[in-house]
Each structure stands twice: as C-alpha cells, then as structure tokens.
Write a structure and sequence with these properties.
Layout (H helix, E strand, L loop, with lengths): L9 E5 L17 E2 L2 E2 H12 L3 E6 L4 H8 L5 E5 L5 H15 L8 E6 L7 H12 L5 E6 L4 E6 L12 E7 L5 E3 L3 E4 H10 L15 H6 L5 E4 L10 H16 L1
Parallel strand pairs: 1-4, 1-6, 4-5, 7-12
Antiparallel strand pairs: 2-3, 6-11, 7-10, 8-9
Helix pairs in contact: 1-4, 3-5
Length: 255
C-alpha cells in the first residue's frame, strides 16, 4: 500500500509598503516588532502554519536590504515588487514562483499574504490550507464587523446649514452580512496564476487594480470560501497598531 504526501504549500508575501504612515524612514516590512522585522514575523507564522516556500516582493529601491535579511534562508526568495500596484507586485511574485519552484503543480496551494499582518496565527494559516486541500478554489479569512457602519455623501457647496466639503450620513449599513477581510488568501496554483494573467492590464494603476486577490476570483465567477479570521491578524498601518501588536506579543509570552 502506498501513500502520497500532500502537495507543498507556497506563498507570496507582499512587502512593498513605504512605512510613511508609521512615521518610519524604512519600508514598513522592515520596521521591527520586539527586535524582529514585520516580514520575518510573517514568514515565521506562515512556515509554522504549513507553508514550505515563500517569495517576498520587496520595494525595488530597497531590494538589496531585503535580500540581505531574508534570502540566506533556502526556503525564501526575494524579488523586486512593482511600484504600479499591489496587484502587480503579487503578479511579480507569482512569476518568480513559476521560475524557481520545481515542486509546483496545478493543485499546489498558494497563499498571498501581506507582511503588514505579521502576527497571523499558524492556526489561521492552516485553516486556509485545509480548505484548499478540501477542494475550494479561493479561500479568505473574514472577521465579523463589530463597528456600526454608515454610508455618507460629501456636500459640494454650502447650503441649508451644511458645510461645503463636509461629509454627512446617508444611511446605516446592515453589518449582519459583512466581514472584514484579512490575509493570507489561498488559491490553487492553476487558479491564481490564470486570474492574474487575465487581469494583467488592470494591475498597471492603483486606480484600476484590485486591493485583494479574492476580488479577481469574484470577477471570474469563482466562489470565495470564508474561513474564520482573527483579531491578532491586524494590519499594521499606523503607530497605534504597533502598540496593539506589542500587547499581543506580550500576551503570547505570558501564555
């Protein structure tokens, strides 16, 4: 009786954020959290959750810094991202996988993850991988929306007591059917590569590019499975997010 091992799992980590809103003079992914860069935290989490090999897309102007930090590891390759859009950077990472990952097959699970979510748990990563291995074609983590949501309009000209350029509420949005989307998002290799090939033209500008890879699947009519997200997979954008992230690490250390 013979047994077959599960297909290897691959990942593309987008790490081209500028860090400006963090008040940093270095790329966001190189900002340190308890002495370890955000991108290294993200890599650790992905590998602990089942990822075998990862490509990191770095800001072209800081490519050598990323390579010096990461590429000594035999499971990581660093490539320049694109200044055009996140979508274009992911496409560059996928192309690098195609060129270097000999074990890739049509059904290989491929995760797309943002280095700006450094503390995603291995358990969440495993949930995405398990759903792919069960036959799903697109998988995303989703977190229930806790805040009240309202749509609004902007007043172009002052009138009837309303200030010009101010925002005013239009309606309260029903949050019952809404989730906040996180990463990693997962796809079989044959699916994610074809989605990016079809949408290549839209990646040339932030005005036309999509903000996540699940959006490409939605455009193609592919059902997108939602698995449980988590609070610790927060996106690091502003200095207060680093405060929350340090609190999570402190709690981990006490556990």
């Amino acid at each position: 009786m013979t047994s077959t091992s599960p297909a290897q799992v691959f990942a593309v980590i987008t790490a081209a954020g500028s860090g400006t809103r963090l008040g940093s003079d270095r790329p966001k992914a190189l900002v340190e959290l308890d002495g370890i860069s955000l991108v290294e935290h993200a890599l650790r989490s992905l590998h602990s959750g089942g990822v075998d090999c990862a490509v990191v897309t770095a800001p072209p102007e800081r490519f050598e810094d990323f390579r010096a930090l990461l590429e000594f590891r035999d499971v990581v390759r660093v490539v320049p991202g694109s200044p055009l859009s996140r979508q274009a950077s992911v496409a560059a990472g996928l192309e690098a996988l195609a060129q270097t990952a000999a074990a890739l097959s049509d059904d290989s699970p491929v995760l797309i993850h943002d280095a700006a979510r450094p503390l995603v748990s291995p358990q969440l990563v495993s949930r995405v991988i398990d759903a792919l291995r069960a036959g799903e074609q697109a998988v995303i983590p989703g977190l229930a929306v806790a805040d009240t949501l309202k749509s609004f309009h902007e007043v172009p000209e002052a009138s009837a007591g309303q200030a010009q350029g101010a925002h005013y509420v239009e309606a309260t949005v029903d949050r019952a059917g809404l989730v906040a989307v996180q990463t990693p998002q997962g796809f079989p290799w044959k699916v994610i590569r074809e989605l990016h090939r079809r949408a290549a033209a839209s990646a040339n500008s932030e005005a036309t590019a999509l903000t996540d890879d699940a959006g490409l699947a939605q455009q193609a009519g592919i059902p997108v499975r939602i698995v449980a997200g988590e609070g610790r997979a927060l996106k690091i954008t502003t200095p207060i997010d680093l405060v929350f992230a340090r609190a999570i690490l402190a709690e981990d250390a006490r556990a």
